[in-house]
UniProtKB/TrEMBL annotation:
GO terms for biological process: tyrosyl-tRNA aminoacylation. Its EC number is 6.1.1.1. One of its GO terms (molecular function) is tyrosine-tRNA ligase activity. Keywords: Aminoacyl-tRNA synthetase, ATP-binding, Cytoplasm, Ligase, Nucleotide-binding, Protein biosynthesis, RNA-binding. Its main location: cytoplasm. This is Tyrosine--tRNA ligase. A motif ('HIGH' region) lies at residues 62-71. It is an enzyme of class 6 (ligase). InterPro entries: aa-tRNA-synth_I_CS, aa-tRNA-synth_Ic, Rossmann-like_a/b/a_fold, S4_RNA-bd, S4_RNA-bd_sf, SYY-like_C, Tyr-tRNA-ligase, Tyr-tRNA-ligase_bac-type. Homodimer. GO terms for cellular component: cytosol. Pfam families: SYY_C-terminal, tRNA-synt_1b. It comes from Leucobacter viscericola.
Length: 440
């Protein structure tokens, strides 16, 4: 029954999505939302989007067990085209995932066949969540291992490799960056753009696919496909490169100390995911609403006004966090994240939070080990909420220390067994906003 309810909720989420009819064309809306950084002929693409249904695709390589926020940009672009009546292919690269596209600095670690196969299944399930599988424009999943594995190396070089010029390949940004690095680049990663171009050609042949989307940093790989289709089939195909999403200060969006914001709840909890969006800067939040939500232009412009006039209310951030967390994790998990956020700061009952949500919330805080009988003053020091036992006692005496939102009244008070939520967790608070966790 739980599986049925999840499917029903996902259907409801997809059914509520729509493009904004205040725009004359879908292309105009995509430009307003900041989703077009580079493309083949814009006029032709705008006409294509307004014409009869066509097939298009985006590829996702299983180089990790989960998709991340950069992939979400592509999934939402695919969904917007699907809402227009066009037919998406979600390609999860069982073959290209065995290689990985070149990174700017160093060679990728090659994963085992079994690992990649497992990750293919996981990513296919994630892609399927964001695109409708019903109706004339139903999504279709494809795996490039299906057409790459049967091809011999000789056949690949004769039929596909002969259409690529090494000089052109060397000019691709990712390749050029690696050639100029100490690491250099292997033939394995150098060949990636040929494989991606072959994907587009094969999808053109099998499904009459005429458009590929991807991040703008993939532009060289995207155009390898359009060029190959032109050379082999004498036909035109299109590509859209979305901008790399960055913060107002120019830093890469979705990265914190090198860690991606994953879409898998086991790799990034709904609470942490919700907090990520809630903490977006005023300078960034309107752009995030444009890219990551289906709110209308009128709604987003109203939030833009609120950011300018009442930034302290953080209305735009709250709506952004609500919309994107619901999109990715569902309404129940989102409400759990909201409840946890409120309860941590004394606006709800911590005891009603389930163990997983509470653990996720505390993982974002300074923590210390503790058990029933541990002096609270010492725990304040251990969690670095205060610098010394003397400061801890003064804070308690002044009525500014709380355990699970209950004021600590005695300087020598110890943690009680009933203070350990789920027998494991306690929340320390100093003042209104300074929090730490205790874990038995």
């Amino acid at each position: 029954m739980a599986g049925v309810s999840v499917v029903n909720e996902r259907t409801e989420i997809l059914s509520a999505q729509k493009n904004d009819d205040s725009f004359a064309t879908l292309w105009e809306e995509l430009e307003w939302r900041g989703l077009i950084h580079v493309s083949t002929d814009a006029t032709a693409l705008s006409e294509l989007l307004e014409g009869k249904p066509f097939t298009y695709y985006c590829g996702f390589d299983p180089t990790a067990p989960s998709l991340h926020l950069g992939n979400l940009v592509q999934l939402l672009l695919l969904r917007r085209l699907q809402l227009k009546g066009h037919k998406p292919l979600g390609l999860v690269g069982g073959s290209t995932g065995l290689i990985g596209d070149p990174r700017p600095t160093a060679e990728r670690t090659l994963n085992s066949l079994d690992t990649v196969a497992e990750w293919v299944s996981r990513l296919q399930a994630q892609v399927s969540k964001f695109l409708s599988q019903d109706g004339d424009s139903a999504m279709r999943l494809v795996n490039n291992l299906d057409w790459t594995a049967p091809l011999s190396a000789i056949d690949f070089l004769r039929e596909i490799g002969k259409h690529f010029r090494v000089g052109t390949m060397l000019k691709k940004d990712a390749v050029a960056a690696r050639l100029n690095s100490d690491e250099g680049i292997s033939y394995t990663e150098f060949s990636y753009q040929i494989l991606q171009g072959f994907d587009f050609l094969e999808l053109f042949r099998q499904y009459d696919c005429v458009l590929q989307s991807g991040g703008s940093d993939q532009w060289g790989n995207l155009t390898s496909g359009t060029d190959l289709i032109r050379k082999v089939e004498g036909a035109s195909a299109h590509a859209i490169g979305t901008p790399l999403i960055t913060n107002a200060d120019g830093t890469k969006f979705g990265k914190s100390e090198g860690n991606a914001i994953w879409l898998d709840a086991e790799m990034c909890s709904p609470y942490a995911f919700y907090q990520f969006w809630l903490n977006q800067a005023d300078a960034d939040v309107v752009d995030r609403l444009k890219v990551f939500t289906f709110l209308s232009r009128a709604e987003i412009e109203e939030y833009e006004r609120l950011v300018a006039e009442e930034p302290f209310k953080r209305a735009a951030q709250k709506r952004l966090a609500l919309e994107v967390t619901t999109l990715v994790h569902g309404a129940a998990a989102t409400q759990g994240a909201i409840d946890a956020s409120g309860a941590l700061f004394g606006q709800g009952d911590l005891a009603v939070l389930d163990s997983a949500t509470l653990a996720a919330a505390l993982s974002e805080l300074p923590q210390a080990a503790g058990a029933a009988g541990s002096p609270i003053a010492q725990l304040l020091v251990d969690t670095e909420l205060v610098k010394s036992l003397g400061e801890a006692r003064r804070a308690i005496a002044q009525g500014g220390v709380y355990v699970n939102n209950v004021a600590v009244t005695a300087e020598d008070q110890a943690l009680a067994a009933e203070d350990l939520l789920h027998g494991e967790f306690a929340v320390l608070r100093r003042g209104k906003k300074t929090l730490a966790g205790v874990r038995a």
